[in-house]
Design a protein that fits this description.
Layout (H helix, E strand, L loop, with lengths): L2 H32 L10 H20 L8 H20 L7 H21 L12 H7 L4
Helix pairs in contact: 1-2, 1-3, 1-4, 2-3, 3-4
């Protein structure tokens, strides 16, 4: 790996982790909403934290763009696409009552982009969505 790509990987790693964290937090909120939990409220701390972490990650995606090398181009495009999809999911999670399907669609797209990013360069890992809580709930016809 050349030095420019290495610099990109080091800078992109915390951004990727933040995007992954937001996706996981939104998935958790969807689980609460889908199961009818009274904790699934528009002012839930998990949703507030997701918005804060996402804002930081979104800024990071813009900042890291200057470091993108030829080898990192695919990874960056996936990272940027994940950010766009998560922005949509976070925005849709602001409506109440929470429309689980409206949030789940962009969340799944974001996760697919994070999975693509994880395959594009070493050092970026995600849990396969098919093994996650949303897949388990969806298969149980809760959504």
């Amino acid at each position: 790996m050349d030095t420019r790509t290495t610099a990109y990987v080091l800078a992109a790693q915390p951004i990727f982790e933040d995007l992954r964290q937001v996706a996981a937090q939104l998935a958790g909120l969807l689980v609460l909403a889908a199961t009818g939990s009274k904790e699934a409220t528009p002012d839930h701390p998990m949703l507030r934290l997701s918005r804060q972490v996402f804002a930081n990650a979104e800024d990071g995606v813009k900042r890291v763009s200057v470091l993108v090398s030829e080898d990192a181009g695919s990874h960056y495009r996936s990272l940027a696409d994940a950010s766009v999809a998560l922005n949509d999911a976070v925005a849709r999670a602001g409506g109440w009552p929470l429309d689980v399907d409206a949030v789940l669609g962009p969340l799944q797209h974001a996760y697919a982009h994070l999975q693509n990013a994880s395959r594009a360069l070493p050092g970026f890992s995600v849990v396969e969505m098919s093994q996650g809580c949303c897949a388990l709930i969806k298969s149980a016809n809760v959504f």
